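Office hours follow-up: a student asked to see two folded examples consecutively, so here they are.
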Amino acid sequence: MIKTVWWAAVEVAELGKPLEFAPLSAFLVNTLETLGLRVEDQRPASVWLSSLAEVLRAVPHELREHVTPKEPLRSLAEKDALGLPVTWLRLGSAGELSSAVALNLERPIDLGDFAEWLLGELLLDHRMAL
């Protein structure tokens, strides 16, 4: 399920770089619903992020460009990943995620909100790299 969310968010972020976040996130969540995912399902953010970490580790070498953050976000997040848990995972950083990003990751979040979070960090990466 998270694999589908990841690749859908990657695609929307790449195609929607110049567009506003709100319609892109609505499109992403609607697409996930159309694919049969239950976007209202809630789990702690740590559960979604743990699943995402597994997906990112399994990405084949030829697609790694979609995982590794671009400059300047990469350098920024290597020094301080505050509020950027997806980027922190994309870096493959070692250490405790919740302390690195200073977020309460045990707070429940629904799949739709998690997808929007992914999209937001991916768009940030694309837009900072321009």
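And the second, which I mentioned at the end of office hours:
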Amino acid sequence: CLLSGDQLRIANDLKLMLDRLSSIKRIIRIYLERLEKLLASNDLHESFSSINHSPIRTSNSNLQVKNNNKK
């Protein structure tokens, strides 16, 4: 099957566009993976932060302050 010059150019352009789209997909996948890691890290920090500010932790801190004041 022989292709004319125009058909070859169109086929080549399509191949280049598909290659470019593949590159863009790869870049987007990398950014999404980074974003997922960042969000997971942020969730972890928020979890630790909520533990540090939990009512039990706060009441323990208050007890320590009250005990120190009694001395």
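Two things to take away from it. The longest helix spans residues 5-52. Residues 5-70 form one domain.
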